[in-house]
Amino acid sequence: GLRIHDYLYFQVLSPGDIRYIFTATPAKDFGGIFHTRYEQIHLVPAEPSEACGELSNGFFIQDQIALVERGGCSFLSKTRVVQEHGGRAVIISDNAVDNDSFYVEMIQDSTQRTADIPALFLLGRDGYMIRRSLEQHGLPWAIISIPVNVTSIPTFELLQPPWTFW
């Protein structure tokens, strides 16, 4: 199983109805690491959501973080598409929207390509709830803080999603 340092945490600051700390796992053997903590950065759902080619909203992903859905192409391909659009990182949510506990290990594909930006895996339920909230509010992106050091937050203040058990 995964240990606490195998996780990376981010907090949604807006919209308020999903103002929780979410758990993600970094890609195993590709992608970069966070050298900076972003206090407020946009989490922009990619269009199309699988991000296997040109993004129709690529302009909004530049200097921000993309929320991408699993499927259609490799994790590395998705990461490279976001990187080519100027994204600072990519969060890839599982395409199984009922997945609230199983983390997929994102590994290199067989192409010998690389990616420099951080790539994280997010549970399908979490990705779905973020996208659903944005749609309900008519918002093009969420505002997040990433990474969040959960060891410095008192347990009673950890605002985790009510649908996820830690």
UniProtKB/TrEMBL annotation:
An annotated GO cellular component: extracellular region
Cellular compartment(s): Secreted
Keyword Secreted attached: yes
Domain PA, first and last residues per copy: 43-127
Pfam families per UniProt: PA
Membrane keyword on record: no
Keywords: Glycoprotein, Secreted, Signal
Described purpose of this protein according to its UniProt entry: Plays a role in the modulation of physical activity and adiposity.
Protein name (database record): Protease-associated domain-containing protein 1
